[in-house]
Write a structure and sequence with these properties.
heterodimer, A: about 230 residues, mainly alpha, about 0% strand, B: about 260 residues, 10 helices, globular
Chain lengths: ~230, ~260
């Protein structure tokens, strides 16, 4: 198995970071995020007032979602090398990434459609906005299962020289736990658990950003292990 | 040589405690399946009362009352946290498909179906119902549309399941390693046929072909539930019967050194 291609793909991760930073600096209209207590008329008015920012963010977010896929793919390929009895955790991981990414991009498109014709009936604009948030929340649940799969596979690694260091498993369990409150944004319209709250929004995004950054450096080392003789595992 | 190593190390024989079982990864994932299906049942039946399906011809007042019931939001939250386990359940099938003598094309087509199925067959329909409950005051026509979208997507999503059962059934029948029994292959193909029955829910509003109808829903359910249990029992037997020397971690022996 060659490491060069993986290394190359891995460097799309900082690209995602740069895109995020660019979106944040160019279109700061979404910090703080919209409140779930806004009425349909307020949502429509907000979008009309922030039309350029919304459209810009929609385009950026689509690219950010896509540029994180090679990062997850690198993790999946390394999971296939881990000394488990079967590739079951790696397969679970890949399916989770597919579901999470689909939900994430659906969220983005709901906002995009809402901003495409902001003079639509405010009820429909609000419905698209709510739907966007639901789909934005959904990947939290998938990251939880995804990280637990990665952790499980590391804990059960039978290799004398494990593929991932053991602390990475603990780190994945910890980030999975911190992502859980994000799912409760569906139940709460105010307070820290609402979708603009400190637990559901700030903690979740911060956790995810730190997670991606730390795993990027972990993978930089893991990907460069000398494995030419191993062949490719599916 | 390897036999003597196995005999010398008691932990590699039946004396191994369960947490040292070489197949622990597969057993963990397998036992997440009953856990997930129980949660799934809880979410769709007693929590949301979305199942058994309400009538497509329900009175608009009933539709509004249902779409605004707060339990739908609890159901959405649980589903959001648990949907990843559907991936784990599907990965259990894929591991057995990987062991078969067939091309990986079956495996990857199945994987694509599993990803799409989780979105259109579970996450999206539940969100359609949850959105009505999240914000009171949506127009009745909007709630009616989400109601239709939710039920049609949940009951009428046949494409990805036809794909998945087609891939699984064909792989079992073509497999020369006899990983899963041949009769199960035929059984899976018959299950695939019942998926075609739901095609009519996109047209019929009442009667046996509607989404709450005798043929399109109940007939399918009666066939599906025992089928799903039998398939997973067969998967369990396949995990249990996999010879130790075939396991990917079998070559790593404690205390050995590797280059």
């Amino acid at each position: 198995m060659s490491t060069r291609g993986q290394l190359l793909l891995l460097w799309t991760t900082p690209v995602a970071g740069v895109l995020f930073l660019a979106a944040y600096l160019m279109f700061p209209g979404f910090s703080p995020p919209m409140s779930p207590t806004m009425t349909p008329e307020e949502v429509a008015a907000f979008l009309q007032a922030n039309l350029t920012a919304t459209r810009g963010v929609v385009i950026f977010v689509n690219l950010i979602g896509a540029s994180l896929v090679p990062f997850f793919a690198c993790i999946a390929v390394q999971m296939l090398r881990v000394g488990n009895s079967s590739p079951v955790f790696a397969y679970s991981y890949i399916i989770c990434v597919g579901i999470g990414l689909t939900a994430f991009i659906l969220a983005d498109y709901c906002w995009g459609v809402a901003a495409y014709r902001p003079d639509r009936d405010p009820q429909l604009v609000s419905l698209l906005n709510d739907m966007a948030w639901f789909f934005f929340i959904a990947p939290a649940g998938l990251v939880v299962v995804q990280n637990l799969c990665l952790a499980g596979s590391i804990y059960l690694d039978a290799r004398p020289k494990p593929v991932f260091p053991r602390w990475v498993a603990h780190f994945n369990v910890a980030t999975a736990v911190l992502m859980i409150p994000g799912a409760f944004a569906i139940l709460h319209k105010a307070g820290p658990l609402a979708w603009d709250g400190s637990l559901s929004f700030s903690l979740r995004l911060a956790t995810f950003a730190v997670y991606v950054a730390v795993m990027f450096f972990v993978l930089l080392r893991v990907v460069q292990q000398p494995v030419e003789s191993e062949g490719v595992l599916l | 040589m390897s036999e003597s190593i196995l005999a010398a190390n008691p932990a590699t024989r039946e004396g191994r405690p369960w947490y040292r079982n070489r197949k622990l990864d597969q057993y963990i994932c397998f036992w997440s399946v009953p856990f997930f299906y129980n949660l799934f049942g809880l979410v769709f039946v007693p929590l949301s009362w979305m199942m058994p399906p309400r009538s497509p011809t329900s009175d608009i007042a009933d539709v509004i009352a249902f779409m605004q019931s707060p339990n739908l939001l609890i159901a959405c939250t649980i589903l959001t946290l648990a949907i990843g386990l559907s991936a784990v359940g599907n990965a259990c099938y894929m591991v057995q498909m990987r062991r078969m003598s067939v091309s990986p094309v079956f495996l990857f087509a199945f994987m694509a179906g599993a990803i799409v199925g989780a979105v259109v067959g579970a996450l999206f329909p539940m969100f359609c119902f949850g959105l009505g409950a999240f914000r009171s005051g949506y127009d009745p026509e909007i709630l009616q549309m989400m109601y239709d979208f939710g039920y049609l997507s949940f009951i009428g999503s046949l494409g990805c399941f036809v794909l998945n059962w087609g891939m699984l059934g064909l792989a079992i029948l073509l497999d020369k390693n006899n990983i899963l029994p041949k009769w199960l292959g035929y059984y899976v193909i018959w299950q695939l046929m019942t998926e075609f029955f739901v095609a009519t829910v996109w047209i019929a509003h009442d009667g046996p072909f509607a989404w709450d109808g005798l043929l399109a829903f109940w007939f399918n359910m009666v066939i599906y539930v025992p089928w799903q249990i039998i398939v997973y029992v067969c998967i369990f037997r396949a995990i249990r019967n996999q010879p130790e020397n075939e396991l990917r971690n079998a070559r790593f022996k404690p205390g050995a050194t590797y280059a």
